[in-house]
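Form 7-S
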Amino acid sequence: MKRWIMVVPLAVFLLMAVFLYKGLFLKPEELPSAMIGKPFPAFALASTQGERNLTQADLQGRPALVNVWATWCPSCKVEHPYLNQLAEQGVVIHGINYKDDNAAARKWLAEFHNPYQLDIRDEQGSLGLDLGVYGAPETFLIDAKGIIRYKHVGIIDASVWREQLAPLYQGLVDEAKP
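Output:
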């Protein structure tokens, strides 16, 4: 009996050490998403500009990036100029302003320019929760039918665009052509 009292804690410690050691080598930008291959979740939320309510049907029609962002997110500030460049090149980008103050979001977009064709106001985080968002920035690539095809966690910069997202986006654009 005394022997088991010493072996069990040692076994538990070793098991925990293995899991923690494995965690050191995980890449957070490669977090899997259960949403890949599924339709964009149903929602009815106001736009940050307040003109109207938006739904998942508003995202359909052509392939797009759906970027989860917030004014409280320092990485979003780093990413934002590159999103403006992509929008100027004709890349369709929609935004989800995640768990943020709408007045701050409107000020941000006025100051740093607005790359989003549609910008969804998700103050409560309900859409983010449905998408499985861990934080900001996260970007989803959707096809013309609104099916989620890819998820990127982290900043989009020239390298990420060129190596990961651009080929996928262009493939969906080509696929959508009649």
